[in-house]
Automatic annotation (TrEMBL):
One of its GO terms (cellular component) is endomembrane system. InterPro entries: Cyt_P450, Cyt_P450_CS, Cyt_P450_E_grp-I, Cyt_P450_sf, Cytochrome_P450_Monoox. Heme binds at residue 457. The chain crosses the membrane at residues 6-29. Gene3D superfamilies: Cytochrome P450. It comes from the Eukaryota. Its cofactor is heme. The lineage of its organism: Eukaryota, Metazoa, Chordata, Cephalochordata, Leptocardii. One of its GO terms (molecular function) is oxidoreductase activity, acting on paired donors, with incorporation or reduction of molecular oxygen. It comes from Branchiostoma floridae (Florida lancelet). PROSITE patterns: CYTOCHROME_P450. This is Cytochrome P450 4F2-like isoform X1. It is found in: Endomembrane system. Keywords: Heme, Iron, Membrane, Metal-binding, Monooxygenase, Oxidoreductase, Transmembrane, Transmembrane helix.
Length: 511
């Protein structure tokens, strides 16, 4: 027995030693690869002047702590000094940070793929959907999905946006006059509610009790986990991340979301088959996103597979609820800070809606001042601060400088929107910038909250319609004011959010 115990101990020790050596070799290989990549990036970027970097951290430490500018005061300063762009280093990884419309136009005119350094944190959740796919798959699916965002399809959604906004405002009324609320928390649930109605025709009741629905809780948690991982550099390694409790939870929640999406898709396929043989008198008055995905066919008569449909639904849920929530939250914040603009929006909303609690598609074109206020907020507090691309072929900028294949490029939408060489007094909230008479002569890529070019946001009209609907209904019925006890501080990640404790506003019913 003692002999066997000794043998087992030796065997275990040998296994541990061998595993340790394998681990050390893997680390050494990784370090050599990173050093080689760092040298290659440095040679490529040396033609673009920029700020000095820390030998280990690069420029990561420059983006902290968060402040009212979104934690990007340093980036704003650099954009003012280096007009068109400058190298930025995240540890050993270097890329060109584009800060001027002219450079941005060169990159966005291409169909170059998104850089997985940023988007890989959410890819296990959203799969190979339109946001991250590239090549022939992207071309095909973009063409197939375009009808889902046609004007005629989007119009009925304003009723669904109205329903979700009214549920949120009913909660505000119950809190009493002058209640201080974390706007992001309320608005995120509202936009998620809207997305479920428009994408899947699901009445989730998530604004009342999100814990009742495991899918809602999972989507909410996945978004937060992805953003947390983005800010913790050691967790960028898949090997490390999926060994942590956070990584395990992320993986488990992905399974919850995927199983839910697959179940809904399966049930809808069966329902559509029955509709073909039954009386259609009871059909819905609008097509949701899933209907269109299931019915669309390419020129060869082939539709999307169940996996492709699941990826597009999950992508739509991620992109549609969190980015719109950011845009709406900061719009309400800017209107609270500027009561004169808020009052002008209120008068416009009351004139158009005449007290109605439902916005129609026709109403949207009669809200020009609300529209310019939203646009100025999207400029000042850009919902998606940066777009990352990885070049598959060389690109030459108008000044003759070029980047070779394999280069990483970040189009800093935030910096472009705050560049003093492009915008006068860029840190001032001034909706008049977007009045028609003031837009003449402006660079086509000076304002790109939804990106631009062939890979622009396919759902930009959907998002703007939801923003206009929600703002009109809210300012018609509520007065918004800043909670002086909570200073709003933006924090930069996949979308612009508010740092802890949140973005607090006081809401007072007017009726």
């Amino acid at each position: 027995m003692m002999f066997m115990a000794t043998e087992i101990t030796v065997f275990s020790g040998g296994t541990v030693t061998a595993s340790l050596w394998v681990f050390l070799v893997l680390i050494a290989v990784k370090l050599v690869t990173l050093v080689r990549k760092q040298r290659e990036d440095a040679l490529v970027l040396e033609k673009f002047p920029g700020p000095p970097r820390h030998w280990l951290l690069g420029h990561v430490h420059k983006f902290e702590p968060p402040d009212e500018t979104g934690g990007l005061q340093w980036a704003d300063d650099m954009a003012a000094e280096y007009v068109y762009g400058y190298p930025v280093w995240f540890g050993p990884v270097g890329y060109l940070n584009v800060t001027h419309p002219e450079y941005a136009k060169t990159i966005l005119a291409t169909t170059e793929p998104k850089d997985e350094f940023v988007y890989r944190f959410i890819k296990p959740w959203i799969g190979d959907g339109l946001l991250v796919s590239h090549g022939q798959k992207w071309f095909r699916n973009r063409r197939l999905l375009t009808p889902a965002f046609h004007f005629g399809v989007l119009q009925p959604y304003t009723h669904l946006f109205s329903d979700s906004t009214n549920i949120m405002m009913a909660k505000w009324r119950q809190l009493g006059a002058g209640a201080s609320i974390d706007v992001f928390e309320h608005v995120s649930l509202m936009t998620l509610d809207s997305m479920l109605k428009c994408a899947l025709t699901v009445e989730s009741n998530c604004q009342v009790d999100r814990k009742q629905n495991s899918y809602i809780a999972a989507v909410f948690s996945l978004t937060k986990l992805a953003l947390q991982r983005f800010h913790l550099f050691p967790l960028h390694s898949d090997l490390i991340y999926y060994l942590t409790p956070m990584g395990y939870r992320f993986w488990k929640l992905c399974k919850v979301v995927h199983q839910h999406s697959e179940s809904v898709i399966r049930d809808r396929r069966e329902a559509l088959k029955k509709e073909q043989v039954q009386d259609s008198g009871q059909r819905r008055k609008y097509l949701d996103f899933l209907d269109i995905l299931l019915k669309t066919k390419d020129e060869d008569g082939n539709g999307l597979s169940d996996v492709e449909i699941r990826d597009e639904v999950d992508t739509f849920m991620f992109e549609g609820h969190d980015t719109t929530a950011s845009g709406l939250s900061w719009t309400l914040y800017n209107l609270a800070r500027h009561p004169e603009h808020q009052e002008r929006c209120r008068q416009e909303a009351r004139s158009v809606l005449q007290g109605r609690s439902v916005v129609t598609g026709t109403d949207l074109s009669h809200l020009p001042y609300i529209t310019v206020c939203i646009k100025e907020s999207l400029r000042l507090h850009t919902a998606v601060p940066s777009i990352a691309r990885k070049l598959t072929k060389s690109v030459t900028f108008p000044d003759g400088k070029s980047l070779p294949p394999g280069s990483l490029v970040g189009i800093s939408v935030w910096n472009i929107h705050h560049n003093p060489h492009v915008w006068r007094d860029p840190k001032v909230y001034d909706p008049s910038r977007f009045l028609p008479e003031n837009c003449k002569g402006r660079h086509s890529h000076a304002f790109i909250p939804f990106s631009a070019g062939p890979r622009n946001c396919i759902g930009q009209h959907f998002a703007m319609n939801e923003l206009k609907t929600a703002v009109a209904l809210i300012v018609q019925s509520f007065r918004l004011s800043v909670d002086e006890n909570h200073v709003a501080k933006g924090v930069m990640s996949l979308v612009l959010k508010a740092a802890d404790p949140g973005l607090f506003l006081k809401v007072t019913p007017l009726d």
